[in-house]
Records
---
Amino acid sequence: MAKELMPGQKRITPQGIVADLMLLIWFVFSLFPIVWMFMLAMKTPAEQTTTYFQFSPTLDNFATVVSDKGTLLTSVDFKSAIVQSVINCAGAVLVSLLVGIPAAYAAGRWKFKGSDDLMFNMLSFRFAPELMVIVPLFVIYNATGLFGTTLGMIWVLQLVTMPLVVWILRSYFEDLPEDLEQAALLDGYTRTKAFVMVALPMVRPGIAASALLSFIFAWNNYVFPLILTDTGSVTVAITKFLGGGGQAYYNLTAAAAIIGALPPLILALTIQRYLVQGLSLGAVKG
Amino acid sequence: MGTLSLKGVTKKYGTVTAVDDITLDVPDGEFFVILGPSGAGKTTTLKSIAGLVDIDAGSVHINGVDMTLVEPYHRNVAMAFESYALYPQKTVRENLASPLKSGRVGTYDSAQQQQRIDVVTKTLGINHLLDRLPRELSNGQRQRTALGRVLVRPADIYLLDEPLSHLDAKLRAAMRAELKSIAQKSSTTTVYVTHDYQEALALGDRIAVLRAGRFVQIGTPTEMWRRPVDTFVARAIGQPEMNLIDAHVEGDRIVMTGSGVTFPAPDDMGLVEGEKLRLGMRPNELHVVPAGTPAPYGWVAASGHVLLAERLGRDVEVDVEVGSDSLIAVVNGDHAPAEGASVDVLIHLPNLHVFAGGEPGQDTPRLGSVLGRNRGAALPEAANEEALS
């Protein structure tokens, strides 16, 4: 007879141990690059290519990366690159939300001729490799003076952020019971009022999720800022530490990558509470 | 105050016709009930009136004005949704105040709003819940809040979609009475949708039975009970459902096919020899007496034995096998026969509905009832009870 278990206690079985071990191996395997990056970021230049775990940790790399003068051989103004990236990505997300929320609402609520084609067309922006459109874009940006401008970056990042916002929010709006807006209409409110008063507050988790996701995608984008701007972006700036043919500063690259991961992380933590908010909150019967 | 008139209203969803050519006139102040099974198009009909669905054909007139293309917020109708549709982030008080604050259904200062909300919530028994959010309410409380959001405001027409369906039985009966008195007092034209025939009979000035998007019959509760237009309406109204058994015409008599029981065919129905019929008998209009009890004039007796007797409370539901037919009767529990007993089932001829014959599951029109023309005597209740005791 097996031993009685207390609530919350689990029976230990050989299969369970094997499963746990395999999970642990996977855990170490998948986290190792990140661990290695943190180690690398705290190594001195002399230690940066060593492959053992013993080194004398230092925070100098972080200081170097954010120092005003850029760095050593590479003349990268990392701080202003980060600021520029924040402006570009936040701007892109804001524009996408402004245009995308009404678009998603329309697409989620009404089926009209060609609405599915339109949505698929929008999604295809995500399928298409950026390299496919980058050359014509470069020519157009040069000709129109959008090259290197903040407006130009915000505009081109719409290719990244808009499909995400529209597609994520459309499904939120589709899941929203129509009855609520209809009740508002009968209460005497216009369709716009009903949308703002009823539908919008209920898709807040969706707005948070799509904003976060599209910000991260825009933040991680490399090709557009590489080709279409010279004012810098975090992704391009990080790679400059690799030296481009001269000496590669792996330790600085790692430190820059860690700093570069902070803004999305901060954003995620800030809007986390909206992400977990329940959807319909008992508005309609389950 | 408002009259409502629908003319040929039709609504299709893809290839499915939810509402099919409905025409209806509801005079001012009437309490009109639409009764039908789920999927019959009840809610779509209400939403067509409210302007919440775009109808494919026909027109909607309120107070004689064509409202077909008018936005919902200009129609001055209020609707209680079956799904409640309460604003989740607003308290009960804010939900109820919502129509009063929109400015389109009159102007109310906060004292007037409060006063209206107080009256309605007291009536509905939710005045202690005013500061709760919908998610903190039970389904019954949510439903009453949804009803309150309708009653709190003046409107030309109230549209109520199953507003009592999630209340427990006791509360439902109380709210039914309450609704009836509110309706009489405010005399606001009301279209009430339900699948509960008791609600329909109790509340409706008139009832319409809806099937597959079409009105099968419109009439007063008494008409619907006494003269259902076909077997669908007959079965929709009454619980347990009306018994329907096969019969046919032989000479000048109608013969119950399953049991061979016969009675004279009415001569005003135009029946022909061999014609297949169905006979309808309401369970609570059947009497079950010990075998051999003589049937009074104007009554038909069918002999059988009791398969099942289920006590429902005061009454007992008896399943009697008569030949190859089975008849459900609801009888007084004090005189209920035991299971297995040999009994006669008596039915007064005026209560016997004659329907055209048809395949099982097919609804057929009512031809009439076997009128006793007052020649039949009522079964003396005392004699009946005596015979059984």
---
Amino acid sequence: MVNKYKNQPGINWKKNSALLSETIESFAAKYCFLNHIKPANFYDNLYDLIGNYLKYDNIKVESLLKISEIFHEPLDTISSIFTNSYLYNCTPINRLLRFEVDHFKTLSYCPKCIKSGYHCKIHNCFWLKVCPIHNIKLCQINLYELHDNAKPFTYFSIKILTLTKLFIDNCKGWPFNKSNNLDLSNIYSIENWFYNCKKVYSQYETIKLELGVSPFRYPVDYFGFILNILNNLHEIPINIRDWMPHSNNTFKVNRKIFNFKNDLRLTFNGIKIKNIIVLYLFNLQKISFLTNKKLYQFILDQIINIEKIHQEKRCLWSNDNSYSNWFLLKNDLIHYNSIYQPCIFEYAIQNSKTTWLNPELKDLSYYRELIKLCNETCIKLIDNNLAFYDKDNDNLYSFNTIQFSWEKEIIHFFDHILMGMAECYFYSLTQWLQMMTSPKNQKGKFQSSNFMDFAMSQIYLKFNSDNSCEVMSIEGVDK
Amino acid sequence: MKNQINSFSRSHPIITQEYAIFTPPMEHMIKTIGDWIDQRVSGGYIYGPSRFGKSRTLKWFLRHELEQRYNCYIPLIIWIRKDSVMSEGEFWNQLLEASKYELSDPIKPKTKVVARSLFEKRIKTIADFSECNYVVLVIDEAHEVTLKEWKWLLGLQNNLDNEGIRLSIFSIASHSILFQPNYLARTGNPHIAARFFAVDMRFDGIKRMKELHYILQGYEEDSEWPENSNITYFQYFAPNFYKEGKRLSNHTAIIWGAFESLFPVELDVRKRTKISLEIPMQHIALTIEKVLRNLLDADSWDHIEDPNYWIEVIASTGFSKHMKMIVNPA
């Protein structure tokens, strides 16, 4: 006798209480509350139910289907909750460092959303300052202060507990209350932007770097360092006190990456890279916008300019024997000879002009030497000559020739040039630093720069308005 | 061929006794519960002598028939109360299990506070799932429910009521539950009696020959095994006779007469006007099962038409003794 109505849920759950783009913590809060499950056991419990262990960035469709079936929730809702959570929560670095998702120390939420029993994934974005749904300022709870002895892997549980308390205190009848109809269109816009961002990002080749000294070497993401070029984070090395304190040696070595010291252990395809900027240029070859002829021409022009400058200075490296001269001078003169500043461009011009921007890089030994030639002078030089590509006008500008204001051009910078890198910028750099820094020590606490807060807020606001590239004023935010 | 059938038929419902034939009293019981659901009665009880088919109704038909009637999912929990004495923790854990809660673990039972809270949420979940504010808890063997347990249920019902969810508790029990409302009312718990024993219904045995005829037809027409085979129980055990058009239901009068003749004489004489013949479903089932098993090896249909054969089979089921036990002449 087949019973067509026998779909009674086997667990305690309110039908349709899973909401689109809800955080896993919010979902877990309901589930744990209704079934008296310890938050720490949430994933294990799901494993018992669905028979598959959920991996954050690789959840099988069968698992989603099973969850959808068990909870009697639409598949797209479940999918929106369980997939891509890492996009908002987890950085590639964290994954590589085997840090669990959601273990960050701050819980951001919108009070009005909480009243409706909703906590959106977007709220987890550290750069988001206002709720896209209610346009009010997000509240933040420092979980680390609440739970002094919390270990990194307990933050997921703490978030669930904190959210549960917030919901119970603010949302009457939760989780059996009737959820208000929230207008999630803004959320979809942002998600769409994230999706596109990710798509662009996927076109880039991520270079795996290794940080630290064996056996404490960690792979890190290349793009996290991009913003060093903008001189925004120069204070970071001073403020970093403690991160991943596996050993004193590790700490010391890692700290130096921001100072571009020689003992930094970065490798690319087996090549040791001692300088972030070189690394940056090294990889510019591989990203799509460099196929733009104008940019190509721009960089070549810059190289010619440098050549001219050095010729005027009677650069030592115009000699045919420059390579050996470099080594000769490296030990003795480099720090003292201001006239003959060694230059990577110069070396490039001397040796292989044509292959400088050639993506089909074959002569690795050449680049190996090229990297060796880098020093701080080169960094400054290149830094000053980085291109800014204005997509709207199809023009290329050098940074040092543009009198830009943060409000507009930086956003364009992200939007048109570093769009694909923005995701990693969001999640790699700052969160990584925040994670690594001990908030207990005020001196050691990483102060996120005003620029980042501001720029990121602007980006949010901008993409929130139907991708129209209109920058809304920060004053428009209801505080 | 016969051997093949024998080995295969070990898993036949008639052999395993894992089946139920729909009877008119079952129909009556389901209809009554349906009416109580319509009225949102807070509690009621259905009583009747044991082995009449009450539990089978719960197990095999109640949910399905109600869902057919309402054409929707019915928020129904059926709990068969097992032990005579239990702690509050055990009580709520058993209810959780009865509600088919996947996370309940008999090896690691929840504490009473957790189990109670979970069950309350379970009721809410089921109510929410059925898109109404109403859940029915049916307790089988309810005559075993103690005063404490009624009080716990009262507390639960009040809590749920406070949150806008109505919980009806229907008790299925033997005759002994008849004393409970009176007892509860006289021992300072009239509120419990009023809440859980508001309405009642007697579950009858098979009282009429046409009801027996209907049941026999169930074996011959309205049953099937193996699934989707279109082979009825009778057809399975007596395929040749089935082909020949022989049917047990054609001999209902003989079978009824056999039951009548085995009805205890002293009851019949002393309480002739008050106690009418009422056959427990179990004895009909045992009789038919035995006859069907015999038909497997039978070459002739003659014995089916012999009243003495039926008397012999029915007597072997302990019908007379059972009737003496369940019908109290006093």
